[in-house]
Amino acid sequence: MYGYEDKTYNEVLTQAVNNIEEINQAVDAICEKGYKNLYLVGTGGTYAMASPLSYLIKTNSTIPWYYEIAAELVTAKPKQLTKDSVVITASLSGTTVETINAAKYAKEVGATVIALVGEKECPLAEYADYVFENRTASNDNLVEEIYIQYFALGARFMKNNGEFPEYEKFIDALKQMPEVLQKVREDNDERALAFAEKHKDTKFHMCVGAGNTWGETYCFAMCVLEEMQWIATKSIHAAEFFHGTVEMTEKDMSFMLFKGEDETRPLLDRVEKFVRNYSDVVQVWDTKDYELKGVDPSVRGLVSPLVMAAQLERVSAHFEHVRNHSLEIRRYYRTVEY
Known about the structure:
Layout: H1 6-18, H2 20-33, E1 37-42, H3 45-49, H4 51-60, E2 65-69, H5 70-76, E3 85-91, H6 97-108, E4 112-117, E5 130-133, H7 142-160, H8 167-198, E6 204-209, H9 214-228, E7 232-237, E8 254-259, H10 265-278, E9 281-286, H11 304-322
Parallel strand pairs: 1-2, 1-3, 3-4, 4-5, 6-7, 6-8, 8-9
């Protein structure tokens, strides 16, 4: 497959799985000490990646949580962020300025900071109490390995709170991800190539998602199509689609619908039914299309963000190839002063 090495992919995801035991020890220590709330904090892609974790906690736990953009957290200085808070964040390079500033501010108020990074020898790690690294990680496998660790963190906090009876099955499913997601990538490769070839010159896409795949919708639209491919998009939550965006529907409007398997799926079904009546350009990326061998059916829906990320990576890679536009090129980001 273009732009893909299964050995490296397996190594990165396996390392994320191997970090789970250390994650459990950290969370157990935090819970034993006591805490008041969780802050899920990120910038750009890592902000999007925290979305499925926020949804997991929202739908399965009574733990107070807040989901924040790093730069806004620093400027707003939320009153609930105190010495009794736990901040969870990530940065592959560990050099994202906004995320570093958020971690620094969290330490200033006495909060406990957990950071996922590529290498521990990075600026972000200086402001973290617990650091989990994955040295082989890169942009083409980052999302899945972050999800594995974020989910392991959230699941452990919920378990220690006397909640989430699905814990063991869920963690077992996460441990299956290196093999499961490799199969997802293989199964979606031809379809992803066909989509990329069809849309290599399409100027605008409407990306619609909801629930635990909303973060992937937002991330793919902003981080891949806009940042990495310079293609204009709008990411819109399915629950909000009929309150404004619906009027943008036309015969040649490209719609990409991101369907998971949680409670919000009917929201996407509603949008799909509508846009298929008024647009000739509708693509559905559905996690139900994959077998996910070894994953207990009761937790399939919980791992949908991982499945969505794996299939969309194939789209990213093929866009890079057919458009002759490297995923690494930036005009402004980390290139000019702003």
